[in-house]
Recover the amino acids of this structure.
């Protein structure tokens, strides 16, 4: 069987058409996968936005709480500095010596500027032991 030029062109055209059809089917399939992937990314992005909004809200509330705590306890540092200045080592040393000589907590408070709790502690730790 002798093939003429028209038959060769027809076969080549049919093969090219089949190849084009298969290529189109693969392209359609790839496009659908990309669409699914884009949809998945958009869904995750929306979830991420919601989570970010939640984190921002929590951060704002935490910031407010921290500010409130700072305001409530802003004087603590000043009071600690005052206590450190007032309760220098020599004052405690003198109070301890006085407690060893029998001074009571009231006298330690008046004489050395100790708080009642500090004076009681110094008396208990360093005061004269009571006989039973």
């Amino acid at each position: 069987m002798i093939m003429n030029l028209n038959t060769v062109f027809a076969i080549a055209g049919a093969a090219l058409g089949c190849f084009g059809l298969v290529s189109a089917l693969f392209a359609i399939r790839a496009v659908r996968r990309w669409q699914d992937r884009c949809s998945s990314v958009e869904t995750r992005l929306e979830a991420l936005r919601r989570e970010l909004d939640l984190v921002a809200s929590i951060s704002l509330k935490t910031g407010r709480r921290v500010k409130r705590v700072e305001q409530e306890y802003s004087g603590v540092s000043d009071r600690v500095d005052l206590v450190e200045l007032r309760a220098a080592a020599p004052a405690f040393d003198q109070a301890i010596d006085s407690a060893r000589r029998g001074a009571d907590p009231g006298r330690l408070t008046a004489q050395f500027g100790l708080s009642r709790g500090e004076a009681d502690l110094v008396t208990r730790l360093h005061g004269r032991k009571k006989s039973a």
Summary: Residues 25 and 89 are 90 Å apart (CA to CA). Helices lie at 5-72, 74-86, 89-100, 105-112, 116-126. The chain has a mean pLDDT of 86.
